[in-house]
Amino acid sequence: MTSKISVKNVFKIFGEKPGRALEMLKSGQSKNDIFEATGQTIGVQNAAFDVKEGQIFVVMGLSGSGKSTLVRMLNGLIRPTSGEILIDSDDVASCSPAKLREIRRQKIAMVFQHFALFPHRTIAENAAYGLKVKGVSSDERREQALIALEQVGLSAWADSLPADLSGGMQQRVGLARALATDPQVLLMDEPFGALDPLIRKEMQEELLVLQRTLKKTIVFITHDLNEALMLGDRIAIMKDGEIVQVGSAQDIVSQPANDYVAAFVADIDRGRVFTAATVATDALPMQLTGDTAGDAVKAMEEQNRSAVYVLDGEDIAGVVTYQQAAAADRESGTADVPLADVLITDFPTADRDTQLADLYAPASSGLPIAMTDADNRLIGVIEPEAVFAQLSADTVTLDTEPQAEDEKRELAHTV
Hints:
The chain is α/β, with parallel strands linked by helices. The protein has 2 domains: 53-248 and 403-414, 3-Layer(aba) Sandwich (Rossmann fold), CATH 3.40.50; 277-391, CBS-domain (Roll), CATH 3.10.580. The chain is 39% helix and 22% strand. The protein has helices at residues 18-26, 31-38, 67-74, 97-107, 123-127, 129-133, 138-151, 167-180, 197-214, 225-231, 249-254, 259-265, 276-279, 293-303, 322-332, 360-363, 384-391, 404-414, and strands spanning 3-14, 41-52, 56-60, 82-87, 90-91, 108-111, 185-189, 217-222, 234-239, 242-247, 286-287, 307-312, 315-321, 349-351, 369-372, 378-382. Helix 1 (18-26) runs antiparallel to helix 2. The protein is elongated, with a radius of gyration of 27 Å. The two termini are 27 Å apart. The model is unreliable at 395-415 (pLDDT under 50).
C-alpha cells in the first residue's frame, strides 16, 4: 500500500522571526522557554508520519497540542516554517499558489466541527457548494450533490433548509459537501465534536460504514481517545506540538511510548480495542478420520494445550479436551479410541475482528474458541486464558498483522 500523504520533519512557529526560535527548538529547549525568550509560539515541532492510501489516520491531542495547526498545514491553509508535506509527489509546503489551488480542488476536501452551512441555501445547494466553486454546471452540481446526500442518508431532505435539520443531520450535510467533489483526501477537523454523545457515536459508525465503500484517505482530528481508537487504522498522539507516538490502537494501548500516553490509555476498555486476532494462536487441528484419542492426547501434551480442534476434511467437526481423551484411553486400555467417541460438537466460535469484550462469555466456558474465516474454516484458536490476560492488561506485547464564519472562509479556500 503506497503513501498518499507523507509528512517529513515539519515545524510551524508562529511569529514574525521564527528563525531563532527554530534554532533553539532544535537545540532541545522547551516550548515555554522559547516563548519567554523570543515571543514566538511553537505550533508543531518535527512532525513526521505517512498515511497510506485508503487509511483513516487519526491525530489525537488535547487543546493546544497542535493538531488543528497540523491539519491546516496539510491543505496549505497554514504554511509550515520548515519541512515537507507531500500529497502524492506534490509538496504542499512549498508549491506555488496556483499549484496549491489545483491540489485543493482536485484532491482535498475538509469537514469542520461547526457545520458552516449557508442558512439561506437548500441542503442540495450546500452540498454542491464546492462544485460551484470549481465551476461545475448547475445540472451536474445538482446530480453529484444528490449522490453525495444519498450516501449520507439525506437525499429526501435535498430541498429543505439547514434550520429544518438536527445537528447530526447538518453534520451529514457537511460530509456530503466534502464527498460531492469526490476528493482523494478527506481532512476532518473534530467533525463530531459539537454533537451529543449518542449522535456522535452514530456518526462514527456511519463514517466507518462509508469508508468500507469509498476507501478515501482520511486524516481525522480529535481530542477524544475513544473516538481515535474506534476510527483510526493508525493514530498519532500529540503533546505541545510534538507527535509523541504513532501506531495502531492496539500498539498504543498495549505499549504506550511514555507516561503521558500511558495516562491517557489507563482507563480505556481494552475489550473494545483488542480483537480475537490479537490473541489467537495456530489451530494445529486433528483429523476426525485417521487420528485417535491417543493421538490427540500426545498432541496436546506436546503443545501444552488442554483441548484441540478436530476437522472432518476442511470442516470443523468439534473439539476434544485432554481430560476426556485421556479418560477414554484409560477406560478402553488402548490408544485407538476414535475421536468421534470423545468429540464435543457444541463449541464457541468467533471471527478475527470480534472484540474481546464479546469473547468474555464464550471464554468462560473453558473451551478454546475457534477463530473462523468467512467460509467457517478454522484459522486459529483463542485460549480462554489469553482473553482474560489481555482484558486484565497482563500482556504487554502483541503479535498482530486508537468558528463557523471563519470555517466558511476556510472552506472557500479549500475547495
